[in-house]
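Let's practice the habit of predicting before peeking. Look at the sequence and jot down your guess about where helices and strands might fall. Then scroll down.
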Amino acid sequence: MAGTAPASAGDQAADAAGSAAPPTVEEQRLDRAVPREILRRSGFDSLTGGFTRALRAADSADEAARVVDRHGSRLWRRAVDRAQGKGLVRGDLSRDDDRPLYWARLTMTRELRGWEPRFTVSATERERLLGVLERTSRGQDTMDFPGGAHAGAGAGSAAGKGFKRIVLTGFDPFTLDRDIRISNPSGATALALDGTWIRTADGGLARVETAVFPVRWADFAAGTVERTLRHRLPEADLFTTVSQGRVGKFDVERTNGAWRGGFPDNDNLSRTETVPVGDPASQPQWTSTTLPYAAIVAAGTGRFPVYDNTSVTEIPAGGSAPVVRPEGPTSGSTARAGGGGDYLSNEIAYRATLLRDRLGLHDTLPGGHVHTPVLQFGAGNTDPATGTVTDPAFVQNRLDIIAQVRAIVGVAAANR
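Done guessing? Here is the structure:
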């Protein structure tokens, strides 16, 4: 087999200097008409322009770091404020739209990836800046409850302070090559609920803190879920990861599986393997929800039906072929799909509930995954080749899903 040629001195110098990189597959979609229209019609094109100017004007690595942190945080706050009706809204897209945040972030990461500063920035430093931009613009570093951290909230100490603390996560849009107009109602819900107070079904009060995650296998393997939630779950009284699932229905996923099924992510990369986590020797094939699923299903939370989804796909102990088990996994089986499938929806649920268990919170912290209905465009606007980026039915569907997630969270918090 032919050997790999050693890196030249020039190659090594280029890496040390952190040469500009080409845009990712995800970032390349920015050149299409729909993303440009969404940015223009939301006013978020001006936000990304300000970032570009500030980054190019930076005269040191420290200044660049401050620019990235400041503009990433500003983007998240602007998206949250827009979704919650705070401040001036530019453009004619509805406030509840999550897509301006997604496309604006990609504009900023593409600029940062291709940035050619007047000073030396190593490849490692550039990656660190990209990480800061991802975390700040997704709300991952601002999930702070009033009153600061407290120990043992999973056992109910937050309730003793007069309110419950709820952690909720959503996702970016995905399957964009199928329809680039797509919005993700879980991401829209995260924006609508971040930092809000809600009344629970029993009349109590709860504070919600949220974050949004990328639809990329590599980020999950690098620990983005655990890094974000490790210090939040011990403070919480309840958590739920949320993503888009089946048409016309909500699902509370009973069981999560340790398997990646290979569906392409937003960078068109596939992974078919056991979910990679720390300490794989102690890794279980399955984790389970501790959300009060019976109460959630029984409650009247909105116009969409809600199901307790118990089905999984497994390779039975001693077997070799996958088998669908409607009532859940059997003893000693190997996971091939949780109730939420074998994509990143299942994986975030698996990682979050595994983290709950490894933190010793299984018996005290209700948590799991909720799948929303697919967010559909209105009749006559279903063809991405000829359709518009929004319509009244599309907006109403998203608003109804957001409202129903809020109600589900309220029921769950009342029954924790």
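How did you do? Residues 19 and 123 are 7 Å apart (CA to CA).
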